[in-house]
Design goal:
The chain is built from nine helices and ten strands. With 239 residues, the protein is of the alpha/beta class. The protein has a single domain, classed as 3-Layer(aba) Sandwich (Rossmann fold), CATH 3.40.50.300. A hairpin with a 2-residue loop joins strand 4 and strand 5. It is globular and about 50 Å long. The strands form two sheets. It has a six-stranded mixed beta sheet with strand order 6-7-8-3-9-10, with helices on both faces. Helix 3 crosses helix 4 and helix 4 packs across helix 5. Helix content is 36%, strand content 25%. The structure holds adenosine-5'-triphosphate.
């Protein structure tokens, strides 16, 4: 579903992403790991068409993100690092607004909005304004907007960041539930998250892929070691 070929991005003289290659298949939940500043968000923004690559390509569902960014955006649900939401809108109003932006007209908006609310278990708060929701529920609203158009690909930038342990578990369960039949890429700093939900790990450091393997293969690099010790041995801080 996602093919990344020789993707690079420079900000001025800073090479943030340096010639990376990987693929993500339907059914994969890819954990995208790396220290602060490694280039995770930049890579995700290029795959989703929010940033233009300096070199290389990302092909999503057969469409090249540079040549056909609108077709790529149709294939993707994106939860950015800090999901923008309109606090004064109710959950249902916000999702209707997103449905309209996604091209659903008039009464055709109802079915995808209801489905997104059902999938993300927001029925109890659909008429509540977003600013009055807990952080975990706000994050669910972010998921609801990402899955509203039933995309084949989900790109989730640090989806459990800032949540309490219970909310983290809820969101992980939700990702597993939503991931069926989709290709999912999620960035995280939480290594236990990788163990809990990911089927594959890509570790990037200083803009380059240093690991692309299963969580079991990652653990087998140092049997019995903590995942963060393995992470530390493979990376150095980029900031
Ligand atoms: N708009 C920008 N202009 C200049 N430099 C940028 C810009 N965005 C990111 N960078 C730099 O590019 C590098 C990669 O940043 P990026 O946000 O992709 O890393 P990240 O792995 O997502 O980090 P984090 O885990 O902290 O979110 C960093 O050195 C960062 O400072």
């Amino acid at each position: 579903m996602i093919e990344v070929n020789g993707l690079s991005k420079s900000y001025g003289t800073k090479l943030a992403v340096d010639n990376i290659n990987f693929t993500v298949q339907r059914g994969d939940i890819l954990g995208f790991l790396g220290p602060n500043g490694a280039g995770k968000s930049t890579t995700m923004k290029m795959i989703t068409g929010f940033l233009r690559p300096s070199a290389g390509t990302a092909v999503v569902g057969g469409f090249d993100v540079t040549r056909d960014p609108v077709a790529v955006k149709r294939q993707i649900g994106y939860l950015p690092e800090s999901a923008p939401a309109y606090g004064e809108m109710t959950v249902a109003e916000f999702l209707n607004f997103i449905a309209e932006a996604r091209g659903f007209k008039g009464s055709a908006r109802q079915a995808p909005v209801d489905r997104a609310i059902r999938l993300t278990h927001l029925e109890g708060v659909r008429s509540q304004t977003i600013e009055t929701l807990s952080k975990g529920f706000k994050q669910r609203v972010g998921f609801a907007q990402a899955v509203l158009h039933d995309p084949a690909v989900l790109i989730l930038d640090e989806p459990t960041d800032g949540l309490d342990p219970n909310q983290k578990n809820e969101v992980r369960a939700l990702i597993k539930e939503l991931a069926t039949e989709k290709a999912v890429v999620l960035s995280t700093h939480i290594l236990e998250e990788v163990d809990a939900i990911c089927t594959r790990i890509i570790l990037i450091s200083q803009g380059q892929v240093v690991v692309d393997e299963t969580p079991a293969e990652f653990q087998a690099r140092q049997p019995g070691a903590r995942l963060d010790a393995i992470f530390a041995s493979l990376t150095q801080s980029d900031v």
